[in-house]
């Protein structure tokens, strides 16, 4: 019971730290798009611990939506959960616990670990559906409570285990909570579709302005990037690596309810030009620009199957 109380108090402390803010310190940033982010030091700390890897191309995409699968993976990583000491009478499957899961997908092992450790994710969680930061923090709070229950059961009586998880909670709160309602997109909506075409997929990233008229300002002539992940979550293709851009400023005005479409065709190859093998791949498409003096990155993702 004392361990559980300590966990709750430490999570409350995490929220207090967030409210007070984090003092700045000079550091080398692992991602190029977090220099103006309030939670950048926590993001760096999570990166240094190996809990976050970014989306590729030196980007973290701090304002991109987090999917259910990503939330499960992040909590499992940050809280250092595993299956040590667990014995199964049958092969564990993600679909034993999550009805919309794919047992062959990159997130399946994390879903098994999360379920066995008692993380409070609903059985009907949709892996590719975006979560709000508020929803993620709800799951984080539940995860910390479950961590205390595990300790009470004698599974990890060392108090440093509670401390380690609580420190992870502090970092996650700092890194993620700031983004809710603070993306500065001014009413921009977006969607990504991947349509099969001959020898590839046509990617269409639609941006719609539901707010007042505004201008999207792109630097260096680059309006988008997309990264392809294989079933293990490894980056197999990064569009920007194959491109070069003129040092030019592109301004895209958008009136209220006006649309802006970004398109490209991925030819199923990796950055070496080799055709990728059959399997499931996750494509993360993003567009980074400025609204006035505010840097913004919007992102969406889709899963495709190469046959």
TrEMBL record:
* PROSITE patterns the record matches: SLH
Name all SLH domain ranges: 26-89
Q: Where is the signal peptide?
A: 1-26
Q: Do you know which Pfam families this protein is assigned to?
A: BsuPI, SLH
Sorted UniProt keywords: Repeat, Signal
InterPro entries with a match to the protein in the record? Intracell_prot_inh_BsuPI, IPI, SLH_dom
The name of this protein is: SLH domain-containing protein
Annotated source species? Anaerotalea alkaliphila
């Amino acid at each position: 019971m004392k361990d559980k109380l300590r966990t709750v108090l430490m999570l409350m402390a995490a929220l207090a730290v967030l409210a007070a803010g984090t003092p700045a310190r000079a550091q080398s940033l692992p991602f190029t798009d977090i220099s103006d982010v309030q939670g950048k030091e926590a993001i760096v700390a999570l990166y240094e611990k190996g809990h976050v890897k970014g989306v590729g191309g030196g980007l973290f995409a701090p304002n991109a939506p987090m999917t259910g699968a990503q939330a499960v993976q992040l909590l499992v990583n940050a809280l250092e959960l595993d299956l040590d000491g667990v014995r199964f009478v049958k092969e564990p499957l993600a679909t034993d616990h999550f009805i919309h899961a794919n047992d062959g997908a990159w997130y399946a092992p994390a879903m098994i670990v999360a379920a066995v450790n008692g993380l409070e994710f609903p059985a009907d969680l949709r892996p590719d559906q975006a979560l709000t930061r508020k929803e993620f923090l709800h799951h984080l709070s539940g995860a910390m409570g479950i961590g205390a229950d595990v300790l009470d059961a004698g599974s990890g009586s060392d108090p440093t285990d509670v401390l380690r998880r609580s420190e992870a909670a502090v970092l996650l709160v700092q890194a993620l909570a700031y983004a809710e309602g603070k993306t500065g997109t001014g009413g921009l909506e977006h969607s990504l579709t991947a349509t099969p075409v001959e020898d590839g997929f046509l990617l269409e990233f639609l941006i719609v302005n539901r707010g007042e008229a505004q201008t999207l300002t792109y630097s260096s002539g680059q309006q988008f990037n997309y990264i392809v992940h294989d079933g293990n979550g490894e980056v197999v293709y990064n569009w920007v690596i194959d491109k070069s851009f003129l040092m030019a400023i592109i301004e895209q005005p958008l009136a209220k309810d006006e649309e802006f479409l970004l398109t490209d065709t991925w030819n199923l190859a990796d950055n070496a030009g080799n055709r990728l093998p059959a399997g499931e791949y996750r494509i993360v498409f993003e567009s980074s620009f400025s609204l006035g003096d505010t840097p913004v990155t919007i992102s969406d993702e889709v899963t495709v199957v190469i046959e």
